[in-house]
Amino acid sequence: MNEVAEAETVGAEVKRRVQKQLGRASTSRAGMWFWEVDRVLLLLTLFLMAIGLVAVAAASPATARRYSDATHIMAPMHYFWRQLMWVCVSVPVLVAVSMLPIKLARRLSLIGAILFTAMLFVLPLVGAEVNGAKRWIGVGISQFQPSEFLKPLFIVSTAWMLSFRARDPELPVLFVTGAMTALIGVLLMLQPDFGQTIVFALVWLILLMISGISPLAIGGLMGTAVAGVVAAYLFYGTARTRIDNFLFPTKEAALHDRYQIEMAHATLTEGGLTGTGPGGGQMKFRLPEAHTDYIFSVIGEEFGLISCAVIVLLYAAIVIRVFMRMIDEEDAFVLLAASGLAAQFGVQALINMAVNTGIAPSKGMTLPFISYGGSSMIALSIGMGLLLAFTRRNPYLKRSPYTGRWSKG
Description:
Blueprint: H1 2-22, H2 29-36, H3 39-67, H4 78-98, H5 102-126, E1 128-130, E2 133-139, E3 142-144, H6 146-162, H7 173-189, H8 194-211, H9 215-235, H10 237-247, H11 251-254, H12 257-270, H13 295-325, H14 332-356, H15 374-390, E4 397-399, E5 406-408
Antiparallel strand pairs: 1-2, 2-3, 4-5
Helix pairs in contact: 3-4, 3-13, 4-15, 5-6, 6-7, 6-8, 6-14, 6-15, 7-8, 8-9, 8-14, 9-10, 12-13, 13-14, 14-15
InterPro entries: FtsW/RodA
GO biological process, one term: cell division
Membrane topology: Multi-pass membrane protein
């Protein structure tokens, strides 16, 4: 009995210390972070990661069989265990980045944007070629994709430059950020990576609209975007091939892009509303890149279209949550950075799901926090960490509905 009483006393003391450490009166970094961070947004992100682990476990046997040969037989759950490792690395990264002060997060993002843009310059020389594209740089036994890491850092850097318009609307930030986006787009198309180019361009346009440029300028940019797509079709072979294979499929196209799209759609709808059950899918074994580009289709087959709808709602909830949180934000930089990161997150998810449902050509783009990939997972964790850092709120302050100023509640 004494041992039981002693154990209860120790347990109560540990609980008291944790409550003190994380309580509202705590001034420690961890305690302040716990109360300042948007815990709903954090939980939604962790929920997506958990769904991703289940989805990769479902897709892993199909991918392992596809990439096995006579000399190297992969274990059925090979990709699941590797994804679990990447999640264990990514969660601490996400939390650490979310703890950064806004000024430090901005400064590190600017430095990182310069560094990864420089990597895009040298990628044609040192990049590893996979499926005819040089998008990866090898580091030891692994590889990483510079453009994945550049996306959130580019958004924060662009938001910082556009925020100067609030002080001086005459500054040429539109031209500077446009030139920067065009440069990155050219470097991406040289890889080639048309899908990422579209993401960078779309997020830049969204940031411009949020920053408050005139409707006339928005119309001009939209026209320029249409002209850019037409020019890409006429002069950029990769874009022309993808568009032709999607809109005007031939027998040759049926063996490549069109085959992937049709198989993805067939796999997605195979399980009906409720799915075949975990491990019950068979169409996934005929699906290329089941663990990355087309994991949404694997989810549809084994867990049903209802589960796919829930995932769509989760992505929508994250984006809407951020925009609702930014409604009363007065700092132009924070407003643009958080909104841009949320927009990039939503655009990437939307493009991936559009490809899986057959309403967009193949892009080679992952589904955020669900698709397999260490480079993608860590880069997304950095982006979400920055988003959580920019949406933190001091729990001791309340905004007056009359003056709009923050004061102690």
